[in-house]
Structure formats: structure tokens, C-alpha cells
Amino acid sequence: MNYKYNFFNRLKQSLLNTRKKLGDNITKLVRNKKVDVDILNNIENKLLVADISTQTTQKIINNLKNYINLHANCNNKSFYDTLRDEILNILISIDKPLLIEERKPFIILMVGVNGVGKTTTIGKLAYYYHLKNKSVMLAAGDTCRVAATDQLEIMGKRSGCVAVIKNNTTSDPASVIFDAVKMAKMKLADLLIIDTAGRLQNKIYAMEELKKIIRVIKKIDIEAPHETMLVLDANIGQNSISQVRIFNDAIKITGLIMTKLDGSAKGGALLSIADHFSIPIRYIGIGQNIDDFQPFEPHNFVEAIFKK
Ligand SMILES: Nc1nc2c(ncn2[C@@H]2O[C@H](COP(=O)(O)OP(=O)(O)OP(=O)(O)O)[C@@H](O)[C@H]2O)c(=O)[nH]1
Question: What region holds the SRP54-type proteins GTP-binding domain (predicted)?
């Protein structure tokens, strides 16, 4: 079996709706229309309709305008390649894979609002590193939702984790997390992934709680968390920009995961996030199964959406 081929084909299949809304519309337009200033208005509309922010759309259009000015009579193919490269370059700027070997235990604090797929993603992430022979521990830091700990335990079992640290006698997440960090250090785990509650509706309180959690982690390891990872749901499209801003302003996000790209037609929002923030997009979620998860790879992403 050709692993690389399968990997890409799964990605392509998952991005089908984004491809239809963003890639195919633009490809059709650029292949069939004369390259002139007029085509730029059409491209601009297609980008905006595909949930790409005004700022990012404007940046792409301005660069294409410069290209047309410098290359009068350019053909459709070279113009299309330029457009594709513009998009690719935005994504390459945030292409920084996560290296967990740098610390032991490497501590990832997972944050995000309710329902984005945080717990499922923790399971996927744990399984991904389990397959790489890493010992992974989880911390049940979402003490708000009664079922959250149970859900995390199920995920822990499914993903081959060595332990899920919980404490049913306290509702203080910082206390559970403090114990988990101590335990992960003692057991020499390679990776500790910490779940947290996501209640953006109670924004100030939620952010203060996350700040407290970080302070408590730092009592044990001043450099931790080594990654503060925000999970985003592709279905909310451009609204994820405000989620990134709120979390990043409060606790400085160091990595992003976009889930539910399968089925969503709003995968183009990832481009806006890459353009607005220079925060690496580490992984993407492309389904409900534990292995529906891939490191984010700009070349594959663009190739899955835009025909060559
Ligand atoms: N299609 C699809 N569904 C996903 C993906 N990731 C998560 N889900 C689904 O999204 C739903 C919510 O996932 P959870 O992991 O419970 O979300 P959560 O963010 O932990 O929710 P809270 O614990 O309430 O904060 C579940 O039905 C998951 O199966 C994905 O990449 N694709």
C-alpha cells in the first residue's frame, strides 16, 4: 500500500467541499477568462464568498495586480500558477511542525471553545504520538462538564495513553493539572496533553482560569506549557479569527489545530488565520475517527484544493 498516496487522497477527499467552493470556482474562472484587471474583480468575489477575509483577499488581489502590471499579456497558466503560489506562500509562512522531542515531558495545553472537537482532537493527537512510540499522558482539566473526564478516559484508552490523570473530588482544574504535571515528570512521560474547559460565553472568567492554570504549570516547569494549542472548528469559517484573537491576547497561543475540515466548505478560513496571525497551524482534523488527523502541510493542502 502506498502510504503517501493514501494520506494525500484522504486529505483531498476531506477537502472536497472547500475545493468546490474555493478551488474549482477560481480554476474555472482563470482558465476561461482573459487575464486583465477585470478578472481580478471576479477573483476577489470568489475569495470573499469562500470565507476568506477582506484583508487577506485584498493582499492576494494587490499582489496579482502587480503581477499583471509587470507581465502584460501573461497567459492564463502563468497567472493561475501565480495565484496558487500567492496562496501557498501565505500558508508556508506558518508552516512550523511541532517538535516534541525538545522537552520531556513535553506539555501541551489544549484550549478552545465548547464543541470545537477539543476532546476528540486530544485523542487523535495522543494516538498520533502513540504510533510514534511516545508515552503519552492526559490531564482531565475540564472540570466544568461532568462528562468531560469520562470522555477523556475513553479517548485515553482508545489512543494507547499510559494514563489519564483526573480527580473527581475537586472542581479546581489547576489542582488536577498540577498533579498531572508532577506525575508526568515522575513517570518520565514523553508527552502530557492537558484538556481544559471551553466557555467563551464567560470570557473574562474563562481566561483568568486559563492564566491561573498556566501559573500553576510554571511552578513545576517554568518553561511549560511548551505548546499552548488552540483548537478551531472549520465550520465557523472567518469567525475563528476572533476566537484566535481573544485567546491569543489573553494567553499567547503558540499553535493551532483546525478540526472538521471534512464536510466543511469553509476550509479557506485557514488562509485568513495564517495571514492575520503568525501562529503555526500544526495539525488538521479530517473526520471523527482517531486517525482522521494529519500534520498541516501547505503544499498538500493547496494541491488538494487547487488543480495543477
Ligand atoms: N467531522 C468531524 N467531526 C469532528 C472532528 N473532530 C471532532 N469532531 C466531532 O465534533 C463533536 C464535538 O467533539 P468534542 O471532542 O466532544 O468537542 P469538545 O470541543 O471537546 O467539546 P467540549 O468538551 O464540550 O468542549 C463530536 O461529535 C466529534 O466527533 C473532525 O475533524 N471532523
Answer: 280-293
- Return all residues near 266 (Cβ < 8 A) that are at least 6 apart: 18, 21, 50, 51, 234, 235, 236, 237, 238
- The response to whether residue 116 sits with its C-beta less than 6 Å from ligand 1 reads yes
DSSP 165-185: E--TT---HHHHHHHHHHHHH
* Strand order through the sheet with 227-233: 163-165, 136-141, 191-196, 106-111, 227-233, 255-259, 281-285, 293-295
Reported as type and span, the H/E element at residue 137 is: strand 136-141
Please, which residues have CB within 8 angstroms of residue 74's CB and are 6 or more apart in sequence? 35, 67, 68
User: What is the mean predicted confidence (pLDDT) over 159-177?
Assistant: 89
Residue 119 alpha carbon to ligand 1 centre in Å = 7
The Cα-based distances of 21 to 52, 158, 253 in angstroms read 11, 35, 29
Mutate to test the pocket of ligand 1, among 288, 289, 292, 293 (most ligand atoms within 8 A of CB): 288
Which residue, chain included where needed, has cell 476572533? 242
Q: What is the pLDDT of residues 229-242, one digit of tens each?
A: 999 999 999 899 99
Average pLDDT, the chain: 92
- The rounded Å distance from CA 132 to ligand 1 centre is 24
Rg (alpha carbons) of the chain, rounded to whole number: 21
**Whether the CB of 145 sits within 6 Å of ligand 1:** yes
ipTM above 0.90, yes or no: yes
Ligand 1 atom with least separation from CA of 292: 31
Report how far Cα 32 is from the mean position of its chain's Cα atoms: 34
